[in-house]
Amino acid sequence: MFHLDFLNNRMLIAVIALCMALGRHMYRYAALNEHRSDMAVATRQWTRDSQQAAYDLAMGRARAAAGISEGQHAFENTCAACHDRNRQLVGPPVTEIARIYAGNTTGIVTWARAPGLPQMPAFPSIPDETLHAIADYMLEFGKEGP
Ligand code: HEC
Fold first, then answer.
1. Which pTM was predicted?
2. Which atom of ligand 1 is nearest to the CA of 109?
3. What mean pLDDT value characterizes the chain?
4. How many other β-carbons are positioned within 10 Å of the β-carbon of residue 138?
5. Number of helices and strands (H, E) in the chain?
6. Does residue 117 contact residue 68 with C-beta atoms inside 8 Å?
7. How far apart are CA 55 and CA 61, in angstroms?
8. Is the CB of 121 under 6 A from ligand 1?
9. How many C-beta atoms lie closer than 10 Å to residue 78's C-beta?
10. Which residue is closest in CA terms to ligand 1's atom 27?
11. What is the pLDDT of residues 30-55, one digit of tens each?
């Protein structure tokens, strides 16, 4: 009888120890899994970001080699649909803008951040440096001449 109790106690302790180990394992597994999937997401994001950066760098170099400035590139992508050099499109010609804003790139940036009329969208996603580069380019591009 004593012998059996002794065995039961040992069995009980063994079972408890096993459960605790199993529980710890499951907890660790769940915690690690969450961490692993966070890391996988971060890694995918990092890969995309670095591919984008490499692409931007290559495109920047190609544009520089072709003599196209950041300002010209951004202007052509975001403004040229409505602003031609000489003709009135949706917005006034660049020559007219360059006349009004001569020496005042900040004025162009301020306008583009909060256009006075709803026909022109605001461009909150364009960084300040890019808008300034666009403004520099517009003043140069719109100078009086042929
Ligand atoms: C969807 C068309 C559209 C796009 C795209 C657009 N504009 Fe305009 N823009 C307009 C219109 C319309 C006006 C005329 C507003 C007015 O007559 O007062 C205007 C006027 C302007 C003016 C003159 C503001 C003044 O004092 O009269 C500036 C400067 C200007 N835009 C800069 C930009 C820049 C920089 C971009 C690109 C980042 C841009 N625009 C993109 C439609 C556009």
1. 0.71
2. 35
3. 90
4. 24
5. 5, 0
6. no
7. 10
8. yes
9. 18
10. 97
11. 888 889 999 999 999 999 999 999 99
